[in-house]
Amino acid sequence: MGKVDYEADLLEFIERFAREKRIQAGYFQALGAVKQAVIGFYNQETRAYDNIEFTEDLEIANCLGTFSVKDGETAIHAHITLADAEGRAFGGHLMYGTIVFAGEFWVEEFDGEPLERGIDKDTGLTLWVK
User: Fold this and answer.
1) DSSP letters of 19-39?
2) What is the spatial distance between Cα 129 and Cα 119, in angstroms, rounded to a whole number?
3) Does the CA dihedral 11-22-6-64 come out positive or negative?
4) How far apart are CA 94 and CA 45, in angstroms?
5) Which pLDDT score is estimated for 43?
6) From first to last of its 130 residues, what are the pLDDT tens digits of the chain?
7) Among 84, 65, 81, which Cα is nearest to 27's?
8) What pLDDT, on a 0 to 100 scale, did the predictor assign at position 129?
9) pLDDT for residue 97
10) What domain count does the chain have?
11) What is the CATH number of the domain that holds 121?
């Protein structure tokens, strides 16, 4: 657990933390606020992420994700829920470009074999293979 660096890209920060700690199976949660954000929505028809960009201050109402391994490297899969000054919530896949104002996170690492990711032929998503 710890504090997320001011003006860090949230996804890059969590990835770097996981690689430094060599986490290959587990999950994390985070809270705080962002200066700007990018969330993704997986378009099932095109099998690609459509990004939604926010250039305003937002609260991180919830952020959670998993640690696993893809092609021998630590992989992060995370979703985030953001709230604006009027209490409206927006959510989706955490993307690069989500810049932290303040944040705290905690991690639970799983014992045992790494969780492996691969392309799922039915959805086109990178999912756990086991």
Assistant:
1) HHHT--SEEEEEEEEEEEEEE
2) 8
3) positive
4) 20
5) 95
6) 899 999 999 999 999 999 999 999 999 999 999 999 999 999 999 999 999 999 999 999 999 999 999 998 999 999 999 999 999 999 999 999 999 999 999 999 999 988 899 898 999 888 888 6
7) 65
8) 87
9) 98
10) 1
11) 3.30.1330.80
Question: What's the token pair of residue 18?
Answer: 């996981």
Q: Which two tokens stand for residue 118?
A: 């691969």
| Cβ contacts of 40 within 8 Å, gap of 6 or more | 49, 50, 51, 52, 92, 93, 94, 95
Name, in order, each residue with C-beta under 8 angstroms of 70's C-beta and a sequence gap of 6 or more.
116, 117, 118, 126
Range of the domain at 113: 2-128
- List phi, psi (to 5°) of 51: -90, 145
- How many beta carbons lie within 10 A of that of residue 100, not counting itself? 23
